[in-house]
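Need tokens for this chain, all 231 residues.
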Amino acid sequence: MKSSTFDTITCLVGEFLATALLLFLGCMGCTGQNNSLLQMALNFGFAVMLIIQCFGCVSGAHLNPAITLSAYIMDLISLRMSLGYLFAQLLGSYVGYALLMSLIPKSFLPVDGDNIGFCVTMPHSDFNFVRACTIEFIITSTLILFACSIWDPRNEKFCETVSLRFCLAVVCMGLTAGNFTGASMNPARSLAPALWNNNFKYQGVYWIGPLSAAVVSSYVYKLVFWREVHE
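Here are the structure tokens for all 231 residues:
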């Protein structure tokens, strides 16, 4: 097998495992009956930190189709590889969630009076589709701008603590918008629980908001803020 082919497979496997771990560890931290927003935000943030440390050097640890779309727009990944990442992320998220649901007894799951399904992202009942989509757009735009700044060549010497900084960024977005939309920012994270529980209500919020945010924010950063480093 050619080294380039092996490297490609390694990247896709890394992205698959990384996204599977995101759903497994992130949603596992939401089991129990009295989880606070702070606890759930910290759990997902720490999971992201751990995963980026493990797979950042392998595949970049995108974990998120919106991040992959942004990387493609910023010319950091090819179209073919970005499509491979998308498939690996969606498959990995479902496998990670399915593994969790097969291991956790129902007695450990929160009481679901609304029958929406465990770890399914849903907007607050006071938010309609447009408002929820707008909030997902704004918080995902912030995350994308953060990612673009990490990729910026001028920031290369400040990358030692990328995993910790991504952790804090995810925690910030979770605490900010968790009560409103669940602060998904990630279509793969929202699709797997929806698919398992056959609950696709408002699923469009978690695709339209994050993906449109990735397009807009990436182009803005690329055209306005991006600079090459000249020796």
